[in-house]
Design brief:
- The model has no long low-confidence stretch (mean pLDDT 90).
- The protein has one domain.
- By secondary structure, it is mainly alpha-helical.
- Helices cover 67% and strands 3% of the residues.
- A three-stranded mixed sheet has the order 1-3-2.
- It has seven helices and three strands, in the order ααβααββααα.
- It is elongated, with a radius of gyration of 18 Å.
- The longest helix has 31 residues.
- 51% of the residues are buried.
Length: 229
């Protein structure tokens, strides 16, 4: 396969898409098992699942929009909005469970005041926990992260589809690329994170470098294999 200017652009788009998936998950309030027991803020599942969920939703939304139009900006916007809705719905459903099933107030132990609402947090943090529920700052951060992941999924899928025209093959390689970046993000976070206000968020440059290396290698392999196919 000849590496003309279009091929180079496709590789760069996949690289950017992988970075968006890897960095976007740092914005998502990931609570894991502690959150499932209302002992930490965030969604009660892991980083890989949430990153894959946002990337997959972005891929599906982008794929649907591509069946309607070939406008790149509409396709990317569809991926971002679709994943944002998915992440928002997930956080909203989790909030209902925390509020009405568990009876836990939404509070963060990482900040004294919610950066969005200004509400005081310490009086509502249960002893022995690092907060519970999904406070406003976590919800806003999660929406940003979800939209970044969806945008990344769309940016990976779009160039692959242009190269080979096979939706199934393009989706398979796109899923593999953002799963690798999701695992890198998970390793970097090492447990739970609340969002961009969490001290752990400052570790994102490490994930950026690792995701950049992984994404460029995966982009080259995907373009060569799918292009040849």
């Amino acid at each position: 396969m000849n590496f003309d200017i279009n091929t180079i652009v496709y590789i760069l788009e996949i690289l950017v898409g992988g970075l968006l998936v890897g960095i976007g998950v740092h914005f998502v309030p990931v609570g894991g098992a502690p959150a499932a027991m209302a002992q930490a803020t965030g969604i009660g599942t892991g980083t890989v699942q949430l990153a894959a969920g946002s990337g997959l939703t972005g891929l599906l939304a982008a794929g649907f929009m591509m069946s309607v139009t070939d406008n790149l900006w509409l396709i990317l916007a569809s991926g971002a909005v679709g994943a944002g809705i998915m992440m928002g719905s997930t956080m909203l459903t989790g909030s209902w469970i925390y509020a009405y099933a568990v009876g836990a107030p939404f509070a963060s132990a990482k900040v004294n005041y919610d950066p969005i609402t200004g509400f005081s947090q310490p009086p509502y943090v249960a002893p022995g926990t690092v907060g519970q529920g999904i406070p406003t700052i976590c919800f806003v951060s999660g929406l940003i992260g979800g939209m970044m992941g969806g945008l990344g999924g769309a940016m990976i899928y779009y160039p692959l589809y242009l190269i080979n025209g096979n939706a199934a093959l393009s989706a398979m390689f796109a899923i593999g690329i953002f799963l690798v970046n999701a695992v890198i993000a998970s390793w970097n976070i090492q447990g739970t994170i609340e969002g961009f206000h969490d001290p752990k968020f400052k570790k994102w440059p490490f994930a950026f470098r690792a995701c950049a290396i992984a994404s460029i290698l995966l982009a080259l392999a995907a373009v060569l294999i799918t292009g040849g196919a």
